[in-house]
Amino acid sequence: NPWLQLAICVLLATAAEIFLKLGAEATADPTNGWSWTGLTGLRSGWVWWGILASVISLFNWLATLKKLPLTIAFPVGQAVHILVPLSSLVFLGEAISSRRWIGIGLVLVGLMIVARPAARLEEKL
Prior knowledge:
The chain has five helices and no strands. It has 125 residues and is an all-alpha fold. It starts with a helix and ends with a helix.
């Protein structure tokens, strides 16, 4: 099912961002001369989980694109812009400003606008 693959892709991309953030925090060392490169993050298991989630998400994305038009898949895939801030709030304890909440709401409205033609497309398939 391409919609399930797209949902998995979005969830894995969201998880990857959280894992990468955890890894970056775990290996943050401003005294290390190489920290500016990001290579020090490779010492964290969280970073490797993030890389793995990104790779699996990529393969799901490719499989999704075989079955759904890009004009539908890409906008729906932007649900990541809702899920990453919400996951950051829940799992990392990060604050979400009122301006960001407004942005999340606008993305949600945009997704609903895109979802209507996607539902019609699904009926035709």
